[in-house]
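Internal QA ticket QA-208
Title: Verify multi-chain structure generation after dependency bump
Assignee: T.L.

Test input:
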Amino acid sequence: MQKLDESLLSPLPPFSKLSRAQIKTILSQATSRRYDKGVSIFDEGTVADRFYLLLDGTIRVVKITPAGEQVTSLHIPAGQLFGISQALGRDTYPATANAASEILALSWPTSLWASFVANYPGFASETYKTIGKRVSEMNTRIVEMSTQHVEQRIARALLRLANQSGRPIEAGTEISFPITRKDVSELTGTTLQTVSRLLSAWERVGLVNSKRKKIIVCDTHRLAALSEAGSRPQNLM
Amino acid sequence: MQKLDESLLSPLPPFSKLSRAQIKTILSQATSRRYDKGVSIFDEGTVADRFYLLLDGTIRVVKITPAGEQVTSLHIPAGQLFGISQALGRDTYPATANAASEILALSWPTSLWASFVANYPGFASETYKTIGKRVSEMNTRIVEMSTQHVEQRIARALLRLANQSGRPIEAGTEISFPITRKDVSELTGTTLQTVSRLLSAWERVGLVNSKRKKIIVCDTHRLAALSEAGSRPQNLM
DNA sequence: GATGAACATTGCGCTAGATCAAACTTCTGC
DNA sequence: GCAGAAGTTTGATCTAGCGCAATGTTCATC
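Actual output:
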């Protein structure tokens, strides 16, 4: 456990309206922990005994099907709360949280949830905003999966990742955590071969630049155009 | 506007912990209204000025893509709150709510939301449980769309509908609101032709019984077996 | 610096399911 | 009762992208 400074929390939305003293209290109740890339912070279905704040890195929220296939429902960037089952009226975690990169997270026992909500102005409302955003994101995923072709879904997924957790770099925007073809396929409901083929094709025309576990989006605009293009004219009323 | 009785609300989870007097107050502030089949109660993106409680009928929550295609994200059965954008920290509705059948709904102005949450014990927590359930449902949809074949997705969709808003009948369970092949296709991300073909095939072997705008699930067990069967062995680690 | 594991690429065949099209049935309104 | 609309069925193609397989590349470990 390392020394933490109040200035870490104060700029983050859930805590932005709080006094220095309040943040100090919150920090004193927190457990800070580093997790290696790939480990799971908590598992779907287990009792939600803690809630978390991601200080650094990226979380991959995954569901595992009975058949053992993995589906990524969400990526959570640094600065957001996660594992907040209480806000959904649940006492178990609805999905598994994996560290997409090495991460640093604070956590608090669930028993403190109610007092956070009651005592810290803005905490509850910001939490619900976060949930609202995640709900929209899931909704978008559903709409995309129903109407878009694989090519467009992958384009959109890359744009979203670049936007959400991208690092600007000379050649474009680099997705700031290691990501494999298989990861992208689990995010878009395809196969790693298809992802590989597309990335190769896009690389050839200078849209992206990808190495092993690294993807750099070079031409955001053309990729966006691609993702909007020929959506299936199915069910056009 | 018709006469409403307290006994209507008291068995519903969001109000179950309240006194008769409290429910009376809530009712006095409510607007009751009937909507014809097919009309929209509110539209995606418009300012969320009211929140609703569905007393009778079924709501179909839909999103419309830029290309004009419709995607159904959710069905809401009688007894549940809907249009509760406030609980997601939003001030506009995230989707359009259509009446799948003729429906009856109460509504309150958004301005009352905060006082409901503050004054009525159990209201907030039940709301969040509802949201939690909807989030799981959406999650399930995403997982299904990524890993299941059309046949299984349709099977699951029918089972879910039968379960959620089914009426037991001699021949099996009837989905209690009018539903077309096109509706099912918008719910499962397919085409109405494919749905029609499958329903015909299932009808031939006695799994379902469907007429125009009516679907009766006859053999729940075999349909469930079908829906669990051959999930794509893709990405099996 | 060799061996194995993890990740990526590419080719080929195949099928689930979309697309196009046409006919049929049931309902609604006049 | 008729016309048109809305919903359904069925057939005949056609193709996106999956499954399978083989090979290549990069990384980690001893």
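Spot checks passed. Confidence is low (pLDDT under 50) at residues 232-237 of chain A.
Status: verified.
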